[in-house]
Amino acid sequence: MTLSLRQKRRQETAHAIQTATLELAIENGLENITTEEIAAAAGVSTRTFFNYFTNKEAAAIGTPPGFHEEDKAALRDGTAPLTEDLKRFLDKHMETLAKKDNILRMVGKVLRSNEKARGILDGFLTIERDDLTECLMARVENRQVAAAVASNVTNVTARAIHLWEHEPDRSLGEALDTIWEGLIVASHLLAGSSDQR
């Protein structure tokens, strides 16, 4: 999809505001900076800041990359075993996240010290989890099972990011592989299987 010039400028402005927020927050603490300082650092007016974000916590989180529609369609319409299609789906999502790994690292630092920012991110993740549940309903007829799978997928993403943040020599993809393998083994244990690989 090609963005119009206006859409591209909006993305660039949002990115500039988020980056300025994160840099100032890491330097001074999010609770110690003002929206006026953020706007000045981003090179925009305070009014422009509020056209993009409701508060500094929302600016720090930005708009996290959600699951792509084409990836959800591939998961929904997939014919391979669900575990294979889910892993492929997560690999694609990690590729997207890796494109902005510097932002991801800064967001992680802010999240560790700001409860309000964590709440905003949790809201985004709830929407993604609910959307993924609907997507999985095409493959899993029981809504509670689809919701449990969707919850595990979003949890795997969060855990992979956490591992990647704490083991800098690991790529996001490698962190995902480690967490995914743990989930599969845990699933076998819960199912009563002795296969612990």
Automatic annotation (TrEMBL):
Xref: PROSITE patterns: HTH_TETR_2 (PS50977), SPOC (PS50917)
Cite the entry's keywords alphabetically: DNA-binding, Transcription, Transcription regulation
SPOC domain residues: 1-114
* One Pfam family per UniProt: TetR_N
* Organism domain of life: Bacteria
Q: Which residues bind DNA?
A: 34-53
Could you cite one Gene Ontology molecular function of this protein? Answer: transcription cis-regulatory region binding
Q: Which residues form the HTH tetR-type domain?
A: 11-71
Q: What InterPro entries does the record tag this protein with? A: Homeodomain-like_sf, HTH-type_TetR-like_transc_reg, HTH_TetR, SPOC_met
* Gene3D superfamilies (UniProt xref): Tetracycline Repressor, domain 2 (1.10.357.10)
Protein name as annotated: Mycofactocin system transcriptional regulator
